[in-house]
TrEMBL record:
Catalysed reaction, written as an equation: alpha-D-glucosamine 6-phosphate + H2O = beta-D-fructose 6-phosphate + NH4(+)
GO terms (BP aspect): carbohydrate metabolic process; glucosamine catabolic process; N-acetylglucosamine catabolic process; N-acetylneuraminate catabolic process
Pathway of action: Amino-sugar metabolism; N-acetylneuraminate degradation; D-fructose 6-phosphate from N-acetylneuraminate: step 5/5
Designated gene of the protein: nagB
Active site: D67 (proton acceptor), N136 (for ring-opening step), H138 (proton acceptor), E143 (for ring-opening step)
Lineage: Bacteria, Bacillati, Bacillota, Bacilli, Bacillales
Name of the featured protein: Glucosamine-6-phosphate deaminase
Organism: Tepidibacillus fermentans
Length: 249
C-alpha cells in the first residue's frame, strides 16, 4: 500500500479528486466505485467545481456505490441515494442509467444483493474504488468479523457504527439497523483502490491498519493483499503512525 500524506482535509480532497478526474479524462468507459460518509464530501465538491470549470465529462462513466441503508426511501436525506445525487450526480452529466446504488427498499434484499454483484461483474468490474474507513476498520459496511470472501450482502450494523453515524440523524433510534454493502471480495475485485482518511479520529485505526496482521477482525487489513492501493491521509490521521516511528514535524 502506498501512503500519501497531505497537510489537511482540503489537500486530501484536492489530491483525491485530481486522481479521479485524471482517470475519468483518460478512459472512455471508466467504472468508478463511490463511497459516502463525511470523508468524500470535499472530493465531490472538487469534482463539481471541475465539471463547471473544465467540463470533464461523465457521459460514459459508470458508477457503483459501496453501500446503502436498509429501509430508507430514496427521498430520505439520510439515504446514500439522496447523498449521492445531492453531492454529485445532480451536478454532472452522468446518465442516470449508468448510476448504480444498492436498493435498500427492495422487497427481496437477498435477490437485490445478487443482482448488484452481477451488475458489477457484467461491466467488467470497478476500475477505481474510493473508500473511507470506519473507526473500527470497516470498509463499506463490512464490520469486523465479516468474511474476506463476502460479496454484496445484507449486514447488521455494529452498534459503534450506528452511534458514529447517528450524527446525521435526529437520534440513534432513527439510524437503520441494517444495510446492503458490497462485500470484501467485491471491493478486492476492483482494479485500483483509493482509501481516504482524515482527522485525529482515524489516527488509531490507520496505525492499526499499517502495523497489524491481515485478519477478519480488521476488515481494511485485507487491502494489504491488493496490488494497487493508495491511501491519502492528512497529518492528523498520520499522527500516531509518525509518533510511534519517532517522526516529528
Ligand atoms: N458506510 C460508510 C463507510 O463507507 C464510510 O467509509 C465510513 C466512514 O465515514 P466517515 O467518512 O464519515 O468517517 O462510515 C460509513 O459507515
Amino acid at each position: 500500500m502506498k501512503i500519501i500524506e497531505v497537510e489537511d482535509y482540503n489537500a486530501l480532497a484536492k489530491k483525491a479528486s485530481e486522481m479521479v478526474i485524471k482517470r475519468v479524462s483518460q478512459s472512455s468507459s471508466l467504472t468508478l466505485g463511490l463511497a459516502t460518509g463525511s470523508t468524500p464530501l470535499g472530493v465531490y465538491e472538487h469534482l463539481r467545481e471541475d465539471f463547471i470549470n473544465n467540463k470533464t465529462s461523465y457521459k460514459s462513466v459508470k458508477t457503483f456505490n459501496l453501500d446503502e441503508y436498509v429501509g430508507l426511501e430514496k427521498s430520505n436525506p439520510n439515504s446514500y441515494y439522496y447523498y449521492m445525487y445531492k453531492n454529485l450526480f445532480d451536478h454532472i452529466d452522468i446518465p442516470s442509467n449508468q448510476i448504480h446504488i444498492p436498493n435498500g427498499m427492495a422487497k427481496d434484499l437477498e435477490a437485490e444483493c445478487q443482482r448488484y454483484e452481477e451488475q458489477i461483474d457484467q461491466v467488467g468490474g470497478i476500475d477505481l474504488q474510493l473508500l473511507g474507513i470506519g473507526v473500527n476498520g470497516h470498509i463499506g459496511f463490512n464490520e469486523p468479523g465479516t468474511s474476506f470472501d463476502s460479496i454484496t450482502h445484507v449486514v447488521k450494523l455494529a452498534e459503534s457504527t450506528r452511534i458514529a453515524n447517528s450524527r446525521f440523524f435526529h437520534d440513534l433510534s432513527e439510524v437503520p439497523t441494517h444495510a446492503i454493502t458490497m462485500g470484501i471480495a467485491s471491493i478486492m475485485k476492483s482494479k485500483e483502490i483509493l482509501l481516504l482518511a482524515y482527522g485525529l479520529k482515524k489516527a488509531q485505526i490507520l496505525y492499526d491498519l499499517m502495523t497489524k496482521t491481515i485478519d477478519e477482525r480488521l476488515p481494511a487489513s485485507i487491502l494489504k493483499r491488493h496490488p494497487r492501493v493508495t491511501i491519502i491521509a492528512d497529518k492528523k490521521a498520520m499522527s500516531i503512525i509518525k509518533e510511534k516511528a519517532g517522526i516529528n514535524d
